[in-house]
Structures are given as C-alpha cells and as structure tokens.
C-alpha cells in the first residue's frame, strides 16, 4: 500500500534509504539542511524547503540525523515537525541515540497525538533490488504494520524487536561489538606485521575460522591499501567514522554503567578507536 512519506536527513545513510523509497510506489518528500543534499533529489522526489513543509501531509515521518540534539531540533525546536505533522502520523527514528531519550521523545510525541517507533538500521549485504540495511523496530504492532511497506523498500529484513526502545538497545549493543572488533582487528594486524606476516595471509586465516567479519575486513583492507598511509579521501572518511564510533561506544558505556556491567574493555576501545581508524596506533 502506498504511503505519504517525509524523510528528514539525507546524509550518507539517509540519502541511500530515501533514494530507494523514491523509486518505489510511495509518495516521498525530503528535506535536509544541506542545499547540495536537497539538490541531489531534484526529479526523484518532492524537495521541501523546510521540515514543516516536508512533514505537513505525511503519514510516516522518518528522521535520520546525527544525534539526539538534532533529533530534538527537528521535532521540537526550529524544525517544528511536531507542530506541523498531521495527528496520528507515525514518526520513525533511524538515528542512533540513547534509550532514555527514545522514551522521552515517545512521551512528548504521544502528548501531541503522534505515534512513534525507534527504527535504527545496520548495513548488511546489498540485495539485488538495492536493499542494504537490516531495520530494527521498537514499537507497537500497529506501528510495525504501518511502517513495514516503506521499510521494505530499503531493508533486507525488518525485525520487530518489541516495545519502544528495544530496537535502539539492540543497535547500541550491535555497534559496541562492531567498533570493538575494528580496534581488535587493527591490533591484530600490528601483531602480524611485527613478524612480517602479510595482510593476505592474515585475512586468509581469520576469514577461514570466522574471526574476520566483513566490516573489519573492509576497514583493514581499505586503510592499508596505500603503503604510504591513508589517501586524503580515505583519511576524511576514517576521521568521520571515528567520531561516529566514539559516540556509539559512549552510548554503550553509559548503558552498561546503568546496568552495572563492566565497561573496561569498552573504555579502552573508545580510547584506541580514533588512532586505529587513522593508522596511528
């Protein structure tokens, strides 16, 4: 069934999701603060000049911005999405934020007559039709059924994880493992190099026994593709990813502290992540 969709936030993840929605039966309106990001959707979808105009007619409002401050700005601050949205519209939060904030956003939106679900995503193997993420959804069964036709346009799978907040908790746990594996991979490469073991042989063994994940393999292979160090383009990408990783590990550490879970390994991983990403260990 066709839905009227507003997509807010056309960054590296959001733009790819929005393009797949634009190529589907759904009626899509997009907005981003970047003129360049909006221009890229000219002819693909309706391009709004503000958050308010983007969400005004939407049944589903998807938000994919960097952090909780930007989420709050879109919904309750300068963006005024909460005021402009139709009563009963469903807000899907794709951004990775802390679980407590998810519940706060849910409560504030419910007070305004809006439905809400947390719907973080994680990259998977790309399917033939372009779907490239697994989407986790925490919220009611009604929210899941309403959102599913839109989520299917860019998702290899859609997992209903339970009540609101459960999907975000799962995403935080998943991200914790990912970033810690990247740091472990960087240190493993250093150890192998100390004994003149080639990356080719290291990857062959660690792939054979399942230790080398696709994400870690892409990171290690890409960051060491040039013997002279990172290219300027790869350096900027690695720098950006390091910032995201530090944010994700901070969310994991705070969640673990709330549950009295030992965070020492995560503390070390957060400290080493940036130098690992930038080949500076």
Q: What's the structural blueprint in terms of helices and strands?
A:
Layout (H helix, E strand, L loop, with lengths): L3 E5 L5 H9 L4 E5 L3 H5 L6 E2 L3 H5 L4 E4 L4 H9 L4 H4 L5 E4 L5 H13 L3 E4 L2 E3 L9 E6 L2 H11 L3 E8 L3 H29 L4 H10 L5 H10 L8 H27 L5 H14 L4
Parallel strand pairs: 1-2, 1-4, 2-3, 4-5, 5-6, 8-9
Antiparallel strand pairs: 7-8
Order of helices and strands: EHEHEHEHHEHEEEHEHHHHH
Low-confidence stretches: none
Rg is 20 Å
Distance between the termini: 51 Å
Mean pLDDT: 94
Count of runs of 4 or more consecutive helical residues? 12
The helicity comes to 40-55%
For the biggest sheet, the summary is: 6 strands, parallel
Find the CATH topology of the largest domain.
Rossmann fold
Globally, the shape reads globular
> In the CATH hierarchy, what is the class of the largest domain?
Alpha Beta
Count of distinct strands:
9
Which structural class fits the helix and strand makeup? alpha/beta
Q: Approximately what portion of the residues adopt beta-strand conformation?
A: 5-15%
Going by CATH, what is the homologous superfamily of the largest domain? NAD(P)-binding Rossmann-like Domain
What is the correct CATH architecture of the largest domain? Answer: 3-Layer(aba) Sandwich
Strand order across the biggest sheet?
3-2-1-4-5-6
Number of domains: 2
């Amino acid at each position: 069934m066709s839905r009227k969709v507003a997509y807010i936030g056309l960054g590296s993840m959001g733009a790819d999701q929005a393009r797949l929605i634009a190529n589907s039966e759904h009626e899509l309106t997009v907005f981003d603060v970047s003129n360049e990001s909006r221009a890229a959707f000219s002819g693909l979808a309706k391009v709004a000049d503000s958050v308010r105009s983007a969400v005004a007619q939407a049944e589903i409002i998807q938000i994919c911005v960097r952090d909780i401050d930007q989420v709050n700005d879109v919904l309750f601050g300068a963006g005024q999405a909460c005021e402009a949205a139709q009563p009963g519209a469903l807000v899907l939060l794709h951004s990775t934020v802390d679980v407590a904030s998810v519940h706060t956003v849910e409560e504030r939106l419910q007070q305004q007559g809006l439905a809400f679900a947390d719907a973080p995503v994680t990259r998977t193997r790309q399917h033939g039709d372009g779907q490239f993420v697994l989407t986790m959804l925490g919220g009611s069964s009604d929210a899941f059924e309403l959102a599913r036709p839109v989520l299917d346009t860019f998702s290899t799978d859609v997992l209903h994880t339970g009540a609101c907040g459960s999907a975000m908790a799962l995403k935080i746990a998943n991200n914790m493992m990912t970033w810690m594996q990247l740091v472990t991979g960087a240190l493993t490469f250093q150890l192998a190099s100390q004994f003149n073991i080639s990356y080719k042989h290291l990857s062959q063994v660690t792939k054979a026994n399942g230790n080398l994940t696709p994400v870690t393999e892409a990171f290690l292979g890409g960051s060491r593709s040039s013997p002279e160090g990172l290219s300027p383009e790869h350096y900027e990408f690695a720098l950006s990813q390091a910032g995201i990783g530090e944010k994700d590990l901070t969310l994991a550490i705070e969640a673990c502290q709330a549950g009295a879970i030992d965070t020492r390994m995560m503390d070390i991983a957060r400290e080493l992540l940036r130098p690992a990403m930038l080949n500076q260990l």
